[in-house]
Amino acid sequence: MVDVDLSQPPFSFLSEEGRDRVRNGIDLAYFDRDEVILETGQPGEYVFLIHKGEVAELDTTLPGARERIGHYTAGDLFGAISILNGKSRYRFRTEQECLCYLLPKALFLQLCDDYPAFAEFFRQTLAHKARLLTEQRAEGGVTMAGFMLAKVSECMRPPLCMGAETTIAEAVARLHESHADSLLVEGDSGAGMVTKTDLLEALVLQERDKESSLQEIAHFELVTVRPDQYLFEVLVMMTRFKVERVVVMERGEEQAPPIGVVELTDVLSYFSSRSYVVSLQVEQADSLEALFRASRRTPELVKALMAQGVKLRFAMDLLAALNGRIISKAWGFLIDERYHQESCLMVMGSEGRGEQILKTDQDNGLILADGLEWPGVETQMQRLTETLIELGYPPCPGNIMVSNPEWVGSVSQWRERIARWAEKRDGDSLMKLAIMLDSHAVAGNPALLDRVRQSLFEQCSRDELLLSYFARAALRFSTPLTLFGSLKKPQHGIDIKKGGIFPIVHGVRTMALERAVKPTSTLERLEALAADGRLEERVAENLAEALSLFTELRLKQQLERLDDDVASKSPDRVVVQQLSSLERDLLREALHIVKDFKQSLSQRYHLEYS
Length: 610
Hints:
Blueprint: H1 16-25, E1 27-31, E2 36-38, E3 46-52, E4 55-58, E5 68-72, E6 77-78, H2 80-85, E7 91-94, E8 98-104, H3 105-114, H4 116-121, H5 126-137, E9 161-163, H6 168-178, E10 182-187, E11 190-195, H7 196-205, E12 224-225, H8 231-241, E13 245-249, E14 258-263, H9 264-271, H10 277-284, H11 288-295, H12 298-307, H13 312-334, E15 343-347, H14 349-353, E16 364-368, H15 377-390, E17 408-410, H16 411-424, H17 427-437, E18 440-444, H18 446-460, H19 464-471, E19 494-495, H20 496-514, H21 522-532, H22 537-564, E20 573-574, H23 581-604
Parallel strand pairs: 9-10, 12-13, 16-17
Antiparallel strand pairs: 1-8, 2-7, 3-6, 3-8, 4-5, 4-7, 10-11, 13-14, 15-16, 15-18, 19-20
């Protein structure tokens, strides 16, 4: 029996008995430098697993300088597709002396028959492989199947329904009898909701008669979900819309009959992890001190989400909503309510796009209604900045904060700034346009921000010269691939933010500006651009998965930095040598997607590509 490490995919999809069959059935072979192991068109007879050495994958139909399309090192495997397809599409040649384990064709095909997950691995797209990587990282056996795939139907309560003419007294008796906290009211235009709190306020604060009808106090603007939606989506919605209950509709339509109710406490209990109580703690915080305590627990929540294999997009959605609520609650504690409808607090950058999981530098600004008189606004904004620092959001090195008067202004002043930036088109002005394009309202009146962003689209979306200048930043950093298409491997690591994340984010942001796409999330922008026909659906999906992979690798570095408390370790640098074979494979494929995207941007916006 050959002693070989089979702990990584695809062999991790085999049982121990299957891995023993591999160990008993493989041989070890030596190949000299520049030796062709597998030729183009040759039938596949073995799957090759590299023990030592390096192998190049060559497309012989391409010119010599471009024929090297892949690079394999210790732990990588090749040849499986040649067996499945009947012949090899590419040539595999050693670049130095190599030792390879040889898995015979017959044994490989038998394993594919006996282990479907093993076979499926070799037919996967980047999206599927990334999902396998996420599930592989899950600890304690908790994977996407057990956590992310929980549905609303598994957690909803039967609806407690009463007629619109039911009296408050009858409703109180029914709730007491049913041990429930809310009931649905059957109105002429659809269902409404009444909670115990509503009944208490109606009787005590509004001094209504107990014979008053529920029609007078019910809320008919409900947040609704479908029974087949993911429970995790419901938690995100509850956080975003600041509600503790959602109504389940059969078809997700307002006029459809309600079939259930999902309570926040039920969702948190279902996930059965104390980390998820963070959402509840933020919502229930009734002072800055309580908010500080809840806010400090967000890194704990991030670690729990990653450890349990939660898909990154869901994690980003939840944390973006949670960070938004923390900032909004701080605003509510500090700012007099009379200014709430006449102002809008916005976050920008990665926070505005909903793509920052761990708290980083503040990027925020304030929009005021034209004509608003707010004495002492500068002092209050300085206090807000200081409070956000205490909540764990460090000050912005570029001073893009509400404490800086340059990032506070009326709607008219913001429109003038945008017009000035668009006209100047220098580096600083283009950066500020990009920041505003990603702005998202977290407190106050969001309609004020809508007016400002609409002006931005009107000013810039049809200006071809401006778009060309704007897009150029996406090509600013080189893609960390060698001339022959393999990963660069500097000892200090490759900068995943500059080489992978930024080109996608800014390239997609440019296209969103051109098409006046309103969502700020890069993933939502990709979906909108695909729906608009501006991007092929396959390209949009590949870019989304590549961005998710880069973000996850970066997050992994950030979490390690928190655990090790190493301030000098850059969270943006990934050391390729420390990645698993699957991670290297995914990273290489994702960076090629970035390279192709940059080429298409260069052609679309007439840029000099290098």
